[in-house]
């Protein structure tokens, strides 16, 4: 092997410009986040809510309950009933022409307090349906956040893996030419080809992941444009809004459970007021055709009142009590869930900040280490395998850093959603927010270091990956956020 010529080939490979198609990918990603095409999260939430099928169902439930409340304002407990009968002696009897016609109309009456209880139950059901709509709105915001974060991470991984694949292809071609002329060993060529195959596999998997993530976003949003999550970068403000008692009392899931409990108790009151079937009152008339009869028409009043019975009352009361018990249980579980969720959100907000700072440091240090290993390899101080492993570790750290960055922004936005601080999800606080303890977060220079000077091959968040020819990549990194 001729060391001088080998180093010349490698220097030519390392000085090859950044891949053209990787630049196009980077430009397309930056175009997605340009001011002209940028989609804010509140606007995206409005779009998703407008086409949410459950929104129409809950709106129908609310309007139906309101119509029941209006109908319960009637004077009577139900609609009128008509009755009629006809008798004669033609078919069976004396056949003397005796004929009787009877007819009547009656209406059911409200039992004491039954009408008012019916109206209260209908109004409570309408309020519960409205609160369920608010809870679904909040759940949709969380699903939209997860889908958007998955799309952003998938796009970053696509740009990274495509750049790696292009660089690995050039490296493999250069090593193959050097091996053909005897300047490099066959083992180096096989190692370069393996790195190319691994990079191509990662690129294909990243494309599949991006398509699946985009499909999930389109199902929610109706558009493949991901909302701008990177605009949320104020963890201290989000922490201040997470006042435990205020968030808990105004959480739509707890309010829904409270309204369901109120409706269940109103149903129990109605069951107690309906202690027997509704009595009926009406008027009737009789017309008779009879030979020599001094009367032929009569008009009167009729009244029907079923008596109370345990057969009628016990099932109604049992069902109402069961509903109250289930509603109270759900309210207790909802409060426990919200309290636990607040603890998790606070912990994720703090851990995401620390993780981002650590991931940024690790990515910078491993990129520098990879540069040093490449330099040593060019000087024949170590093997190609060591340099490839160093670049692989740097690539993994870049993906971890990208994931930590998206998780950090997502944690901030998740805290704002829990606090109801997103337009359309606002909550009216019941107490003055307390000032929480200071939260350690990455500095502005660390989170917005794209404009700062960086060492060679040290990619900052949002930048295109600049790598030399010598590169490989793992297959298990860059998974979408949970």
Automatic annotation (TrEMBL):
<dbReference type="InterPro" id="IPR051906">
    <property type="entry name" value="TolC-like"/>
</dbReference>
<keyword id="KW-0472">Membrane</keyword>
<keyword id="KW-1134">Transmembrane beta strand</keyword>
<protein>
    <submittedName>
        <fullName>TolC family protein</fullName>
    </submittedName>
</protein>
<keyword id="KW-0998">Cell outer membrane</keyword>
<keyword id="KW-0732">Signal</keyword>
<keyword id="KW-0812">Transmembrane</keyword>
<keyword id="KW-0175">Coiled coil</keyword>
<comment type="similarity">
    <text>Belongs to the outer membrane factor (OMF) (TC 1.B.17) family.</text>
</comment>
<feature type="coiled-coil region">
    <location>
        <begin position="349"/>
        <end position="376"/>
    </location>
</feature>
<feature type="region of interest" description="Disordered">
    <location>
        <begin position="426"/>
        <end position="482"/>
    </location>
</feature>
<dbReference type="InterPro" id="IPR003423">
    <property type="entry name" value="OMP_efflux"/>
</dbReference>
<keyword id="KW-0813">Transport</keyword>
<dbReference type="Pfam" id="PF02321">
    <property type="entry name" value="OEP"/>
</dbReference>
<feature type="signal peptide">
    <location>
        <begin position="1"/>
        <end position="22"/>
    </location>
</feature>
